[in-house]
Amino acid sequence: MPLHYRLGQPVDALCISGLATQVFLDTYATDGMRADLAQEALTVYAPARFESRLSNPATLFGLAERDGHLQGFAEIVANAEGPMPSLSAGTELVRLYVQRHAHRQGIGQALLQQAEALTRKSGKPFLWLSAWVENHRARAFYQAQGYEEVGITHYEFGGNAYENRLFQKLLG
Question: PROSITE patterns from the xrefs (predicted)?
Fold first, then answer.
């Protein structure tokens, strides 16, 4: 069954929430569940939060589906305030999540290309993102797609700070 790519709508919030929670916990709860991880998953990834972001014209979601089943998504935000002032001129790739069973099928690459195309269409000169320093697979993926590491930031929740690397790609 072929993959189908489309833009997300508010009605997609529940499935995006479920997939995002699954991928978040699969990626970050590698040593088991902790209260900060559970709280982050149940708040930031709640369906109402995604419904709100899907209703915001500055936020776009690219979805990858197979036979009506969500396999992955990319969330981009125009005019996002970056952790480095220079990044605010671009578009932020907030999340690129693909279910583990769907890895290495070109879904992440296709979603990233869609995010880049949407960024170009909006007139923004580059796409930027942050990736957890311990997510070696993601960092290698972005570098293989032409993203350059440009700095360090921290993502904080539950009283803990997690080091992230900042990446950007100039779009022609």
Answer: GNAT
pLDDT at residue 165, as a whole number:
96
| C-alpha closest to that of 130 among 110, 147, 108 | 147
Strand, helix or coil at 167?
Answer: strand
pLDDT in tens, 49-76: 999 999 999 999 999 999 999 999 999 9
CA 172 to chain centre: 22
pLDDT at 85: 85
With cut-offs at 50, 70 and 90, classify the pLDDT of residue 163: very high
Q: Quick one: residue 123, left, alpha or beta (phi over 0 = left, psi -120 to 50 = alpha)?
A: left
> What six digits make up the tokens of 160?
């803990």
The answer as to CATH 3.40.630.30 being correct for domain 3-124 is: yes
Contact 79, 21 (CB under 8 A): no
Query: What are the extents of the domains in the chain?
Result: 3-124
Assign 129 to helix, strand or coil. strand
Give the C-alpha separation, 80 to 161, whole Å: 20
Q: What's the whole-model pTM score? A: 0.92
Residue bearing tokens 């993502």: 155
